[in-house]
Amino acid sequence: EKNIDLSKINGSGPRGRIIKADIDNLSNTNGSIQFKTDETNLSDKNIGQKGLENYAGKEYKKIEIDSMRKTIISRLTVAKQTIPHYYLRRDIKVDSLLSLRSQMNEGLRKSEIKITINDFIIKACAIALQDVPKCNVIWGGDKILKFKASDIAVAVAIEGGLITPVLFDLEKKGLIDISIEMKSLAERARNKQLKPNEYQGGSFSISSLGMMGVKNFDAVINPPHGSILAVGAVQKQPCFTPEGAISSQDVISVTLSADHRMIDGAIGAKFLEKISYNIENPGLMLV
Fold first, then answer.
1. Residue ranges of the alpha helices (H) in the chain?
2. Fewest C-beta in 10 Å: which of 10, 22, 54, 198?
3. Of the listed 260, 265, 281, 284, which one is catalytic?
4. pTM to 2 decimals?
5. Is 260 part of the annotated catalytic residue set?
C-alpha cells in the first residue's frame, strides 16, 4: 500500500521482525518519506580490506548492530545527508529561572514532584511554537505541514541507543503536569515500556547533555521535524551590571538546528529569541 521495499527495512520486533510501527516510522501519509538503511555499510567486509589490514593482530571484540542501532543509523544518515541543517547559538541567563524553580520545589517538598530545568525549557519551547507558528512544522515530502498544537519530543538516553518520547498539547499544560508526564515517559523509556504512539509524532525536539557537563553541542534534526534545540550545562559567567561593575550570572548555552527547507534563518532566529525570552522570564510560564 505504501510502496515501501521491505528488504530495506530494519525490523524492531522480536528477532528483527518488521512490525506496523516500523512502516509508520518510514513514511508519512502519502508514502513519500522513506528512511532506508544501506546494508552494505553495516558489515565488516565492506569496510575495505586495506583498512582492516591496519588492525591485523589487534585484539578486539565484535559488537553486533541490533535493530535499534540500525534504525538510529538509518535515520541519522538520512537526516545529515538530506536535510540542509543550519545552526543558531545563544547564551541564555537562567538566574531568575533557578530562583523560581527553587521556590516551587520548596513548596512541593512534601510531594514527590520536583520541577527540573528541563521542564522549564520544554514549556518555554511550547510557548515559542505558539508565538512563531512557522516553526511548528514537519517535512511532508512535497509539502510542509504546519501544526496548531505544541507537540515536543524529548531525547532520552537508554541502554543501547536513544529514544524521543513525545509530550502532546503542551501549550495547554502547566509546569507540574509537564514534570509528572516527562518523568513517567523517561522511566518507561529506560525500561523499554513505551508504546509506539508515545514516541512518534511531534514537530520539534529537545536534546540536553547539560547533566553530563557538556557546555554546548549541535544536535541532528529528528526527521520529519523542522528543528531541534540542543541544551548545554548551566555555567557561571562574568557579566557587567548596569552600573559597570562585574558580577557573575548563571548561563546555559543552546543551539537551534533548523531545516532550511522549511524554516528561514530570520524565522529561526525569531523562534530562538522567543525561547530565550521565555526562559529568562520564567514567571510568564506560570500564567
1. 20-26, 49-53, 67-82, 95-107, 117-131, 175-190, 265-280
2. 54
3. 260
4. 0.80
5. yes
